[in-house]
Design brief:
It contains 15 helices and 17 strands. By secondary structure, it is α/β, with parallel strands linked by helices. The protein has 2 domains: 252 residues, TIM Barrel; 57 residues, no CATH class. The strands form 4 sheets. The chain has a 9-stranded mixed β-sheet with strand order 9-10-8-7-6-5-4-1-11, with helices on both faces. Strands 12-13-14 form a 3-stranded antiparallel β-sheet, with no helix packed on it. A 3-stranded antiparallel β-sheet has the order 15-17-16. Helix 1 packs parallel to helix 2, helix 2 packs parallel to helix 3 and helix 6 runs parallel beside helix 8. The radius of gyration is 21 Å and the shape is globular.
């Protein structure tokens, strides 16, 4: 049964030129030039260990995230991807994404990534306004972002994404819509448009900036959503919009409760076993420990009683029908085990159903947390 579950690969690069004050990802400021080549070697050993849990499957998609992966040269990315493909085959037309900062975008750099096998680039723009970028601690300027998007659009990529935030400190409705219109004008096939949230263990967490109030946030979302829809973007996930057929396949596999290997500092993995158990892996967070060969921080079997919540927590992020067969395939559980919770969800009009699918209602989207609590 595990052979029918797609297998993705996430690769984490831990270094940034400067840590952003809102960021709670596992990233570390560069204090001295890291041994990037050595890190690639460790990634490959880490992968080799994890392949014992992956079964005889091919790689469906790869996402190189961070941190700032575009600090790595095209030659290193080529060495990494070539070595991975010698270890495990890639599906035909596998989506392979790398995250990039706008100020790292130049024609040779991006062309080198494409020659290495990258076919999708995700550009961390966040805003097109200098004062907002400064407040967010970004190291690029608005023109860098525009140039990077234009470059990506000119290259033979399958797709590219722009990451854009809203709900920024002192942001007005007009500010937010200006950013969104600027992004739309650059014609990315995919837009990640998400609200800034204050996370603990960040600089913003200890010194919170003044953010827009709830009414303004709602106006930004509603009018922004209308603008995106009017320009041919379909919302397929809570914070993601794409032109037809250009959704991020890697993220879709996450939300559809597929499997993924996670290598690199702090990376997480989810791997279904032949006996139906699901193993989660968590890698050592700090580069020093990781590059000393201590890759695995923790692995555990997800308790069976937690699987329904985990499945729906992921699946209901997507604005698509949920196949009942997918629940059975990915959790190895019968539908009867969630019959009482499904009845409650139907009674409270959070979902509707037919023989094959569950459908999230508008009420279900609005009260998603209440819906998910039924499965705890």
């Amino acid at each position: 049964m595990m052979q029918s579950i797609p297998l993705s690969l996430y690769i984490h690069t831990p270094w940034c030129v400067q840590k952003c004050p809102y960021c709670d990802f596992n990233s570390h400021n560069i204090k001295q030039t890291p041994e990037y080549s050595d890190y690639i070697d460790h990634l490959l050993v880490d992968l080799h260990h994890d392949l014992l849990l992956a079964g005889n499957r091919s790689i469906h998609s790869i996402f190189i995230g961070g941190g700032t992966p575009s600090l790595f040269s095209a030659e290193l990315i080529n060495r990494l991807l070539s070595a991975i493909q010698r270890e495990i085959p890639f599906e035909k037309d596998a989506e392979i994404t790398i995250e990039a900062n706008p100020n790292s975008a130049d024609a040779n750099h991006f062309a080198g990534y494409i020659n290495a096998g990258i076919n999708r680039i995700s550009i961390g723009v966040q805003s097109f306004q200098a004062d907002k970028l400064d407040k967010l601690g970004r190291v690029h300027n608005p023109q860098d972002a525009i140039n990077a998007a234009k470059l990506a659009n000119s290259l033979p990529l399958r797709s590219f994404n722009l990451d854009l935030m809203h709900g920024l400190p002192n942001q007005s409705l007009n500010d937010a819509l200006f950013d969104l219109q600027q992004a739309i004008d650059l014609a990315p096939p995919h837009l990640s448009w998400y609200q800034l949230t204050i996370e603990p263990n960040t600089l913003f967490g200890s010194k919170p900036p003044k953010l827009p109030d709830e009414d303004l946030l709602w106006d930004i979302y509603q009018q922004g959503h209308q603008l995106l829809t009017a320009n041919g973007y379909e919302q397929y996930e809570t914070s993601a919009y794409a032109k037809a057929g250009l959704q991020c396949q890697h993220n879709l596999n996450y939300w559809r409760f597929g499997d993924y290997l996670g290598i690199g500092c702090g990376a997480h993995g989810k791997l279904t076993q032949p006996n139906g158990q699901i193993i989660r892996t968590i890698k050592t967070r700090h580069p020093k420990g990781y590059m000393a060969g201590r890759y695995l921080e923790k692995s555990y079997v997800v308790p069976q009683e937690e699987l329904p919540f985990e499945f729906f927590m992921n699946q209901f992020r997507l604005h698509e029908p949920t196949p009942k067969l997918r629940f059975m395939q990915t959790t190895q559980l019968p539908l009867s085990i969630i019959e009482p919770q499904i009845k409650q969800a139907l009674d409270q009009q959070y979902i509707t159903e037919d023989n094959d699918y569950w459908y999230l209602t508008e009420k279900g989207k609005l009260y998603l947390n209440s819906l998910l609590e039924l499965f705890l």
